[in-house]
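This follows on from our talk about sequence and fold. Can you supply me with one protein entry, sequence and fold together? Could you add the entry underneath, on a fresh line?
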Amino acid sequence: MAGRAAVGYPRFPTPGTVTAVSSATTPDQDLLLQRRLQQDSIQLAGKTIYLNPFLYWRRFDANTDRWLREPGQLDEEQIRLNRTRFYPELDWELLDEEERAIKDGAVEMFLKTLELISTFNPDLNPGLLLEVERKMAVTKKRAFERWVGRSLRRREQAEAKARRRFDRERSLRAWLEWAALDVTRQALVPLVAALVLAVGGGWWWGSQQSCRQQVVAPGLAPVQQR
């Protein structure tokens, strides 16, 4: 896959950069960084396997990027069959629609991540892949759910925006089609003519009123008393 910088994805330091980072951080920050790296990777057969799929972003092409970050890329039946594999404790019938959508998206992220790990680490045997899966189920479940929740909200907002734009365009198109009808033009011509006459008549009457001279009767001179 061609190398490509995936814009907007979290970038984590590789294990080789931990020493350089920790030298400029406090002990608490260094401990947090180490804990985060432990959650995002696992040591197997003398090599580091990344559990965070976005840590493979340098090796993504555009299609892989889109396939990973957009929920709904895998078959629904495949996701349904793997629900109990990653969520054995859940009764899916008790979940509401939003929770079910988020957890289905998390199952999809598990399956995608395992496929990426197998692709980039072809020497892992089924036993090692099972170890990877077990640690992912413990450390990445909440992270995947948060990622899917944000993705679904962004999709919902984009769909709502598209619907509003479509409604505006449809209303404008309906008005234009209505105005282009012969019956509409025949009805509008007398109305427009009457409106023009009313405006013109009002302007003429107003100009006449402003120019008319007001005749004022002369007042009587007061009678002088002797």
